[in-house]
Amino acid sequence: MTLSSRITRRVSRDFAEQDRQAVEEVLLGVVGDAGGGSDEAERILAAVLLHAAGDVDRLLAFADMARVDLRDVLMGSGLEYGDWAARLDAEFGG
Question: Could you give the CA distance from residue 23 to residue 83 in angstroms, rounded to a whole number?
């Protein structure tokens, strides 16, 4: 199970080098068996990263929220509506 390349790029961009491995492990824990490469899994992980904005404590809080109810994480991320794929491309690259 691996993260998509654009999720990995965003982690590298937003988080300090010493935090990146732990951040990636947290993200993988959020999606579990779905992996980070499926469209829906990538959408959830992108929402967590957008909310976290490079802050590890916020990442942990939103990762926990995603484990309880994915809808809560999607709300306010810009990825909650039908145009989420275009927004994801705009934020993370195509």
Answer: 27
Residue 36 sits at φ, ψ, to 5 deg, of -95, 0
63 touches 27 (CB < 8 A): yes
pLDDT tens figures, 57-90: 999 999 999 999 889 999 999 999 999 999 999 9
CA count, 13 A, side-chain hemisphere, 11: 24
Question: Own/partner pairs for 59-62, CB < 8 Å, 24+ apart?
Answer: 59/15, 59/23, 59/26, 60/26
DSSP state of 51: H
